[in-house]
Design a protein that fits this description.
This protein is an alpha+beta fold. It has helices at 2-10, 13-18, 65-71, 83-88, 98-103, 105-113, and strands at 24-30, 33-40, 43-49, 59-63, 92-96. Strand 1 and strand 2 form a beta hairpin.
Length: 128
């Protein structure tokens, strides 16, 4: 799924335009699997997975495979429809630079939810 994320985000002109002032490394953690998404001026330039000792990230969203599966459904159930709802109900943990998050909230939320529209999600074995 993350191999298609860069193409989907970068191909969405309005989304890239919305994030043109956003540059960060976003960490998405699914159980113990880490995905580092490097974003520069609203475009995903790199996605790296694996366990990296002390790899830099600006913002992290950590959740279980089951939580991400529910979040990435085309029509998620209440409590799994939004990263802030998932955080509020204890389904995920948001860490890092809140200034970046709040400054680019719409862009980041749209990037994280983009897999809903790719027709893919997290498989039953937890792999994206």
């Amino acid at each position: 799924m993350f191999d298609k994320l860069a193409e989907a985000v970068n191909g969405d002109h309005n989304l890239v335009l919305r994030g043109k002032t956003c540059s960060l490394t976003l960490l998405i953690e699914i159980d113990n699997d880490e995905y580092f998404i490097d974003i520069v001026s609203g475009e995903i330039i790199n996605v790296v997975s694996g366990q990296f000792l002390m790899r830099h990230w600006d913002l992290a969203i950590r959740a279980s495979q089951a939580t991400w599966s529910k979040f990435w459904q085309k029509y998620p159930e209440p409590g799994f429809h939004d990263i802030f709802a998932m955080n509020r109900f204890g389904h995920c943990k948001i860490e890092g630079n809140t200034k970046v998050l709040l400054s680019h909230i719409r862009f980041i939320k749209d990037v994280v939810s983009k897999p809903r529209f790719l027709g893919t999600g997290v498989s039953s074995n937890g792999k994206a």
